[in-house]
Design brief:
Layout lengths: L6 H18 L4 E5 L5 E6 L7 H15 L3 H7 L23 E6 L2 E9 L3 H14 L1
Antiparallel strand pairs: 1-2, 1-4, 3-4
Helix pairs in contact: 1-4
Length: 134
């Protein structure tokens, strides 16, 4: 496997995530970002919330920018914790809701997947399915 997220990789991640979203009956927005946090590909499943397009892309960016799942970052960013206020950084591009997961090649983060459109648990489960296909 290459250490870059190519379009074919993004399509494979999205296909696996779409399959999981269909299984749980929740249409999703699914975004894949490269090592620089740039969007490689995005899909809005039929019936998925329009407002979640932006959120899915920002979850992928956030997960890559900090090399952490957004679910874990959410815990660290609550009041009194070390990353409280982080969502205000990076010109508002930081999303601290579950659904963003880093994509790794040879132990190194090379991109991320971001999913939005359901509950936090649903978003995270769909993102996990996508990341597993990477």
């Amino acid at each position: 496997m290459s250490n870059k997220v190519k379009l074919e990789d993004a399509r494979r991640v999205i296909a696996a995530a779409e399959k999981k979203a269909a299984e749980i009956g929740q249409p999703m927005n699914i975004a894949v970002a490269d090592e620089g946090g740039n969007l490689v590909s995005h899909v809005r499943m039929d019936g998925a919330w329009l407002g979640s397009v932006d959120i899915s892309i920002k979850k992928a960016y956030t997960s890559r920018a900090f090399d952490i799942s957004t679910k874990d970052l959410a815990g660290h960013s609550q009041s009194g914790n070390q990353f409280f206020g982080i969502h205000a950084s990076n010109d508002g591009k930081i999303m601290i809701f579950a659904g963003g997961i880093p994509l790794k090649s040879d132990g190194k983060v090379v991109g991320a997947v971001g999913v939005s459109g359901g509950s936090g648990d649903q978003d995270h489960a769909v993102a996990e399915a996508g990341a597993a296909a990477f």
